[in-house]
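Recap quiz, item 2
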Amino acid sequence: MSGVPTAWFLLLGAILFTIGAVGVLVRRNVLIVLMCVELMLNAVNLTFVALGRELNSLTGQVFVFFVIVVAAVEVAVGLAILVELNRLRQTADVDEVSELKG
Amino acid sequence: MLDSIWLVIALPVAGVLLNGLLGRHLGRAFVSVVGVGVVGAAFALGAWAMTDLAALPEAQRTFTLPLWDWITVGNLQVPLTLRADALSLWMVLVVSGVGFLIHLYSVGYMQHEDARMFARFFAYLNLFVASMLLLVLADNYLLLYVGWELVGACSYLLIGFWFHKRDEAQAPVTLMDGTQVTLPPNLNPADSGKKAFIVNRIGDFGFALGVFLIWSTFGTLNFDAVFAAAPQAPATVLSAITLLLFMGAVGKSAQLPLAVWLPDAMAGPTPVSALIHAATMVTAGVYMVARSHVLYELAPGSALVVALVGGVTALYAAAIALVQVDLKRILAYSTISQLGYMFVAVGVGAYAAGLFHLTTHAFFKALLFLAAGSVMHALHDVIDIRRMGGLWRKMPLTGLTFLVGALALAGFPLTSGFFSKDEILLKAFQFSPGLWVLGLATALLTAFYTFRALFVAFAGQPRDWPLYEKAHESPGIMTLPLVVLAMAALLGGLLGLPAVLGVPNWTADWLAPVFDTHGLEAKHGVSAATEWLLLGVSAAVALAGIALAYWFYVSRVDIPARLAVALRPAFVFLANKCYLDDLYDAVLVRSGRQLAQLLAQGLDKAAIDGIIDGTARLLARGGAWLTQFEDGHIPHYALGMFVGALLLVVYLVVR
């Protein structure tokens, strides 16, 4: 099998995942946080399809479809929350909201 | 009828359920009819069963009725089986017969209680009758023990029936020389009930151990099986079993050293004192020893202990009764004393004589208590005989029946008590003249204190005029049982006339199949002349006691007053109940309380509470510490998730 080696895909996936994760942790704008979550999900998708190709198995690709569906739902819910938050607080800053505590 | 002997127990149980659950809504008349009726019906059924049993040949007069298997655990098989033989049916008739009369009397006596208390009283009383009948009809030791504990519980419930009452001080005695002797206060009903229950626990502890030992020795608890196997058992084990069982009897029948609860049990309503603490429950110990007579015969040492404890208790209680001023307490000490007689009888092997005295005692002591209750009823609960006097004129029927009871208790010739007591004295004489002297001394004291109470309360001039003016004869529903019991106390002796008169002794003949005493009389019998002499001595002693009481309390009332001064230490000693209560208080109760205090503070509060509270505090503090990490900032939560995920990855890789 020729073309780009699988390791590159995996490396790219890991880099994208790390960028996403760090973004989720350090960025304060909810919109950016959600985009970072998307980035993490797609990094995983990339890993799935790369390994699917490497192992000659369809399972990885089927999984990716599922993840895409779930990611779409997640984005819909996340954006809805973001819109509501903005309406209520006139802010999109995650540090401004800390209602979720016992 | 024997097949339906279970009805004898089931009927009072039905009474308990009806009166206990619905009684307060059903009205006094209904409660009374049910409460009295079920006991009367039980008596009728018992009598019917007895005629059926009598129709059988002597050798077959043991009927067992297996109802169902109660406990089946490994080798331990305890069926719920009732046993109707000559002894148990005899007890059934005594319990339900005297019980019926006392129930009838209670209808009048408890009339002043409100409907709830009235219904509750009859429910308790019926429960007692059911438990007592279970006790006497049981076919094995465990079932006997169940009845034994149930009557104890009923005793507790009924002693404390008026649980709201407080301790009652007794007015001090002012002696002739002006000094005063303070009397111990009468314990309140709630504490008296507890005392009775706890003191009985001590005895029952021994009883339970005895039952365990029977099972581990014989592998069965059934009476017949145990008795059949007993001759092969080692003598030491039999001695241990009999002594442990007797420990239970000592508690239940208020013998030394556990006699202290019975006088305080008088805090309960008087019908309770008559039924439970005179006629029936306290005689359960005598019944138990008589029932286990096979074991006691094989352990002569234990039988001797039984007889000696009985003899000493009889004298001890009679001596205390001499100086009591509370009418019911005089009768209570008298009960302890008479129970001592019964134990002398069963201890020396005269089981029929013991049962005969149990029966006549049930008649005349129930009578005396009910008459005392009638006096209390008339005097609005005044029970101190020093405030009575001359009551004869106000309440002739009560006075007359009390006289009959007193004559029987004193052993006046030809009354029931004379024959039954004489029978015991005769058997005691055959066993050992020393025991006979003990019994005779008790008989003298008995006659004296009984008639002291009678003369002080009923004869002479009233000492408390306002009280006297209020006195009135009790209603017919109370005097009728008195009259019936008086007849029984007077004529009950016919049931067991002495052999020397050449007439059949019905009690002994009826009970002979159980005790297997055929021909025993001839073996150990004394000569007719000796027996006549003993009869004469008993009669003389009874008459002497009565005469002495008459001389002291009617003709020369200054004599006892002067005696009290001259013998002041003895008087104070007896007035304080031989300090037995104080001794127990100092040695057992106080140290027990200190131990409990120590355990409560040291073990319970510090150690156990410490562990429990410490755990709770640890969790609460830990939780409080952990909440600071839950600050509501989503990035912090996300960081937690990532760190966790990272740790998992590290773990999976490193593993």
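Chain B is about 75% helix and 5% strand.
Chain B touches chain A through eleven residues (CB under 8 Å).
End of item.
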